Amino acid sequence: METVILAVVIAVVVLCALGGLIVGSRRRKSLPPPPPKTPDITAPPAEPHVGDEAETPRDEPRRTIEEVDLPGGPAPVVVEEPPVVEAPAIEIPEPTAGRLVRLRTRLSRSQNALGKGLLTLLSREHLDDDTWEEIEDTLLTADVGVQPTQELVERLRERVRVLGTRTPEELRGLLREELLELIGTDADRTVRTEPEDRKPGIVMVVGVNGTGKTTTTGKLARVLVADGRTVVLGAADTFRAAAADQLQTWGERVGAYTVRGPEAGDPASVAFDAVKEGKEMGVDVVLIDTAGRLHTKTGLMDELGKVKRVVEKHAPLDEVLLVLDATTGQNGLVQARVFAEVVDITGIVLTKLDGTAKGGIVVAVQRELGVPVKLVGLGEGADDLAPFEPEAFVDALIGD
């Protein structure tokens, strides 16, 4: 009996426990979620001052910009204005009339070996065959040339034989007459720059590198300006570095405008534009400086012929001046022959005639080309280019 009562009690306790669990589970499922807590609202932090920690602004004295020490930095950039390039002062060239006479002293100093040497030999009491051979050697050394030398010696021998006694004055007069005959006084040595039917006159300057061709072109511009002409320069030497700059400098000194093209450009195009510009500007003369071609380069010589043909699309050339170095002797004659085959040479310019005893090249080159020497260069000065005057040249050659 006790056992049954105990079992009943245990069953009741178990049932009660199970019921409590079920009720608690239902309550937990049916209860709504607890309401959210009200968030704590914090005011945004105040903006910090420069160099201060982030904190609430506080009243403090403020400094002006003048009181603040700025950190050192790079120096302010100073923009310099470009320098004002002043136009070169235009020079007034020396008049050309009688210029060779004024340079006679310089020429006579450099030619003593020829003129004074001949006078010394001719003044000997007895002129035997050995003396006449020395006279021939003197003339050949001065680059007079074989044929002109033989002609001169023959005439001198004949006149000395007829003359008999010979005073220094008679010998000087005799030699002067024969040298003038050899050089020629009847040739037209005027540089043709004034065609009758048009303007401008067109002059092309040709020659080998190193003869002073570009410098001669610039000096010729001075000669023309000194005679009252207006000039345009054509820098058709596009192959030599700084040739165009050199020519432009010469032009600026006398107020002549220079037409130039790109380096290594087409020389014929530059020459064509120079003549075109000269016609539009109404100038008197256009001077065209060509490249200093080696006379042994066939292609380059053909190009020189092209320049001539292109220029003549505007008008015929009035002058083609060949510049030769007076010190080159027979090599200069070889150059002259080749240039004459490509373009029609109308006149010769002899440079570096000072400082040399080779004045006989005047005779030889005229004989070779059949054209006269029209200008001679007697020094490095800007006005040392002079029109060739046979009388003044011979007087300087033999001295007073």
From TrEMBL:
Region listing for Disordered, in residue ranges: 26-78
Catalytic activity: GTP + H2O = GDP + phosphate + H(+)
Membrane topology type: Peripheral membrane protein
Biased composition (Basic and acidic residues): 49-66
Keyword Glycoprotein in annotation: no
Subunit-structure text: Part of the signal recognition particle protein translocation system, which is composed of SRP and FtsY.
Name of the encoding gene: ftsY
UniProt keyword tRNA processing, yes or no: no
Family as reported in the entry's similarity comment: Belongs to the GTP-binding SRP family. FtsY subfamily.
Name used for this protein in its record: Signal recognition particle receptor FtsY
SRP54-type proteins GTP-binding domain mapped to chain residues: 372-385
Taxonomic lineage from the root: Bacteria, Bacillati, Actinomycetota, Actinomycetes, Kitasatosporales
Domain of life: Bacteria
Keywords: Cell membrane, Cytoplasm, GTP-binding, Hydrolase, Membrane, Nucleotide-binding, Receptor
EC number(s) per entry: 3.6.5.4
Subcellular location, principal: membrane
InterPro entries for this protein: AAA+_ATPase (IPR003593), P-loop_NTPase (IPR027417), Signal_recog_particl_SRP54_hlx (IPR013822), SR_rcpt_FtsY (IPR004390), SRP/SRP_N (IPR036225), SRP54_GTPase_dom (IPR000897), SRP54_N_sf (IPR042101)
SMART domains: AAA, SRP54, SRP54_N
Residues that bind GTP: 207-214, 289-293, 351-354
Location in or out of the cell: Cell membrane; Cytoplasm
